[in-house]
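Tip: read the tokens left to right.
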């Protein structure tokens, strides 16, 4: 589907007026970069001589980077550990000029860290340090009170819930946020994972990928059977009362629809370098387009383009509106 540049530009100009609250699981992405010269004498494993360590914002914090890069005012709300990596996380927020007044620290859980060990561009190992249990009731209360305060303080237009199954978004908190947003006529969008998949009743936009959709339905879904996908997606909308469902289908494109229609847009042909971060880009762009009153077809087409564009880049890299506009 072709979109006129003037139409895309109109939407992108609206992005600058939006204020977005992002709630969910944040993490530090750590990269150990080095070179393998020999095999360990202790076990048949490579020895990596580390030359560099790099820290980046991950999880919901990467979505905050994406939304900010698109021009919207961005407020991130989450819980981190009162620990060394929590300090690293806060320094990264400062580095990227992201507000920290939505970040709560607790001694009862670790800051999530995902460490990737890479040699000459090859991923050798990933080590996850995390606590994925639900937030304690007392911390949930504090977090929801903070969310209420931030919505009023910044006059929020959109709430994005970024769920990575790390325990920040509990069923109770999801219900509280959704009810509060609906009472204030705010747009809510969700990037779900398996544990809470069926808890997002009444949100505005629900964006699983095909794997997440299959896991949520507890049924194998064939990405080549678009007709069946449309039926399942329509049934899910009626069951949950969500406004729009958008299922990303990798090389098969995007399926988007509401209770009245389902639209499938094939993927654009791209030179894929790295799919990391594509989902974060898609939810960021789609949420801002919905807040800018874009049509279903325009949301799918522009988000599809944005997701493909980020896949041409190596690593997790936010897309700016001028880069996206050049595609039209």
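Filled-in amino acids:
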């Amino acid at each position: 589907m072709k979109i006129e540049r003037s139409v895309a530009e109109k939407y992108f100009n609206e992005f600058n007026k939006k204020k977005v609250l992002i709630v969910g699981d944040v993490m530090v992405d750590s990269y150990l970069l080095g070179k393998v010269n020999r095999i360990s004498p202790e076990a048949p494993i490579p020895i990596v001589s580390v030359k560099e360590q790099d820290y980046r914002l991950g999880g919901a914090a990467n979505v905050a980077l994406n939304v900010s890069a698109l021009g919207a005012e961005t407020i991130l709300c989450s819980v981190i550990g009162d620990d060394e990596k929590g300090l690293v996380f806060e320094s990264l927020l400062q580095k990227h000029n992201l507000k920290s007044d939505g970040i709560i620290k607790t001694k009862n859980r670790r800051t999530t860290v995902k460490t990737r060990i890479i040699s000459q561009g090859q991923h050798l190992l990933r080590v996850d340090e995390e606590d994925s249990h639900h937030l304690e009731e007392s911390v949930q209360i504090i977090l929801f009170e903070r969310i209420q305060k931030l919505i009023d303080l910044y006059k929020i237009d959109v709430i994005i819930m970024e769920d990575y199954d790390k325990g920040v978004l509990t069923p109770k908190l999801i219900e509280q946020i959704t009810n509060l947003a609906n009472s204030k006529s705010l747009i809510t969008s969700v990037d779900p994972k398996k544990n809470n998949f069926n808890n997002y009743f009444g949100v505005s936009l629900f964006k699983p990928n095909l794997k997440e959709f299959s896991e949520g339905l507890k049924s194998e879904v064939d990405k080549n059977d678009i007709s069946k996908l449309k039926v399942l997606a329509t049934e899910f909308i009626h069951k949950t009362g969500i406004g729009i469902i958008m299922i990303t289908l990798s090389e098969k494109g995007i399926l988007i629809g509401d209770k009245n229609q389902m639209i499938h847009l094939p993927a654009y042909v791209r030179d894929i370098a790295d799919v990391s971060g594509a989902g974060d880009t898609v939810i960021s762009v789609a949420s801002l387009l919905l807040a800018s009153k874009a049509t279903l077809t325009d949301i799918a087409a522009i988000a599809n383009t944005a997701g493909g564009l980020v896949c041409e880049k190596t690593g997790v890299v936010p897309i700016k509106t001028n880069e996206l506009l050049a595609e039209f």
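The CA atoms of residues 151 and 230 lie 35 Å apart. The first helix runs from residue 5 to 15.
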